Amino acid sequence: RNAPVTVAVTGGAGQIAYGLLFRIASGAMLGADTPVRLRLLEIPAAVGSLEGVAMELEDGAFPLLESIDISDDPWVGFAGANIAVLVGARPRTAGMERSDLLAANGTIFTEQGAAINASAADDVKVLVVGNPANTNAFIAMSNAPDVPAERFTAMTRLDHNRAIAQLAKKTGAPAADIARIAIWGNHSATQFPDLAHATIDGRPALDRIDDPAWLTDDFIPTVQQRGTAIIQARGASSAASAASAALDHIHDWVRGTAEGDWVSMAVPSDGSYGVPEGLISSFPVTCANGTYTIVPDLPLDDFARSRIEATVAELIQERDAVIDLGFAKRA
Ligand code: NAI
């Protein structure tokens, strides 16, 4: 057995957390050899509901679950956290301007970044799920000067998994045979899901697709709009699949990616592929020994370059807006 790992999760009474916490407790995130201590955060109005979730977690009698602590104070909630999954965010409500949304989340992620800086474990790894995820992660990172910047990441794994699913459906190949999918840029409708390097059973995936229009007219918009399609069909936003992707993100970051494959994570850019340094943008990455590396030197054609440029331009705009609002400083 490994030493217990302390996992803080915000938005603990929400939809995604309801799909996430039980699987963390069962060992699906960190492995069946790793006990977990959960620290759950909510806003004061939702603490009662969170107590109910904690009762259900107790009733799971999970052998790996050592403790459950609840708080509405980030300075308490993140104490000792080795992993912090920031799910809670302020959703856009009717009549809310984009600047109001950025400001409401700016306040939340400024405080959470500062609290993580002050109280989390030295090895803390942060995953931001709450939207706008990339920019919320940028704000938290900017307010945690003592935590290495590369520990702040945002989730594009759901988009990555959706891309695998669409390719599997199109070709009839099992998801397990598909590798080297890449999501570039923002977790938004401008993201670029890229099949140029994807393989099925080790051979180029694009060789299995005989209609070239499928890529631009079907695959890319389907992955970009999948969140909206699920809201329309289900009457609520994707929650279980988002929880599953969050588990995958942390699992692979901590335990490593499969030989020969990579995953997509939004991480602070090191300047690779022309993405400005420090911008939290999605890249294909490999993980080993608890760290990730952006996959270097992939050849990009003009189509890929222009798609990446467009989604990165949106991220730059979001970054500049939160800098103007005072939530982060220019690098
Ligand atoms: P939800 O509304 O069911 O739950 C969110 C919870 O967060 C609520 O219980 C709320 O009280 C709590 N919360 C809000 N502010 C908080 C704060 N400052 N501290 C602690 N808790 C706080 O929403 P759901 O469905 O769980 O989604 C959560 C977020 O994840 C949303 O922002 C959503 O847009 C985003 N999302 C991101 C995806 C991604 O791929 N990156 C995919 C799906 C959803």
TrEMBL record:
<feature type="binding site">
    <location>
        <position position="105"/>
    </location>
    <ligand>
        <name>NAD(+)</name>
    </ligand>
</feature>
<dbReference type="Pfam" id="PF02866">
    <property type="entry name" value="Ldh_1_C"/>
</dbReference>
<dbReference type="Pfam" id="PF00056">
    <property type="entry name" value="Ldh_1_N"/>
</dbReference>
<keyword id="KW-0816">Tricarboxylic acid cycle</keyword>
<feature type="binding site">
    <location>
        <position position="112"/>
    </location>
    <ligand>
        <name>NAD(+)</name>
    </ligand>
</feature>
<feature type="binding site">
    <location>
        <position position="92"/>
    </location>
    <ligand>
        <name>substrate</name>
    </ligand>
</feature>
<feature type="binding site">
    <location>
        <begin position="129"/>
        <end position="131"/>
    </location>
    <ligand>
        <name>NAD(+)</name>
    </ligand>
</feature>
<feature type="binding site">
    <location>
        <position position="98"/>
    </location>
    <ligand>
        <name>substrate</name>
    </ligand>
</feature>
<dbReference type="InterPro" id="IPR022383">
    <property type="entry name" value="Lactate/malate_DH_C"/>
</dbReference>
<keyword id="KW-0560">Oxidoreductase</keyword>
<protein>
    <recommendedName>
        <fullName>Malate dehydrogenase</fullName>
        <ecNumber>1.1.1.37</ecNumber>
    </recommendedName>
</protein>
<dbReference type="InterPro" id="IPR001236">
    <property type="entry name" value="Lactate/malate_DH_N"/>
</dbReference>
<comment type="similarity">
    <text>Belongs to the LDH/MDH superfamily. MDH type 2 family.</text>
</comment>
<dbReference type="InterPro" id="IPR001557">
    <property type="entry name" value="L-lactate/malate_DH"/>
</dbReference>
<feature type="binding site">
    <location>
        <position position="162"/>
    </location>
    <ligand>
        <name>substrate</name>
    </ligand>
</feature>
<dbReference type="InterPro" id="IPR036291">
    <property type="entry name" value="NAD(P)-bd_dom_sf"/>
</dbReference>
<dbReference type="InterPro" id="IPR015955">
    <property type="entry name" value="Lactate_DH/Glyco_Ohase_4_C"/>
</dbReference>
<dbReference type="GO" id="GO:0006108">
    <property type="term" value="P:malate metabolic process"/>
</dbReference>
<dbReference type="InterPro" id="IPR001252">
    <property type="entry name" value="Malate_DH_AS"/>
</dbReference>
<comment type="function">
    <text>Catalyzes the reversible oxidation of malate to oxaloacetate.</text>
</comment>
<keyword id="KW-0520">NAD</keyword>
<feature type="domain" description="Lactate/malate dehydrogenase N-terminal">
    <location>
        <begin position="6"/>
        <end position="145"/>
    </location>
</feature>
<feature type="binding site">
    <location>
        <begin position="11"/>
        <end position="17"/>
    </location>
    <ligand>
        <name>NAD(+)</name>
    </ligand>
</feature>
<dbReference type="InterPro" id="IPR010945">
    <property type="entry name" value="Malate_DH_type2"/>
</dbReference>
<feature type="active site" description="Proton acceptor">
    <location>
        <position position="187"/>
    </location>
</feature>
<feature type="binding site">
    <location>
        <position position="131"/>
    </location>
    <ligand>
        <name>substrate</name>
    </ligand>
</feature>
<dbReference type="GO" id="GO:0030060">
    <property type="term" value="F:L-malate dehydrogenase (NAD+) activity"/>
</dbReference>
<dbReference type="GO" id="GO:0006099">
    <property type="term" value="P:tricarboxylic acid cycle"/>
</dbReference>
<feature type="domain" description="Lactate/malate dehydrogenase C-terminal">
    <location>
        <begin position="156"/>
        <end position="320"/>
    </location>
</feature>
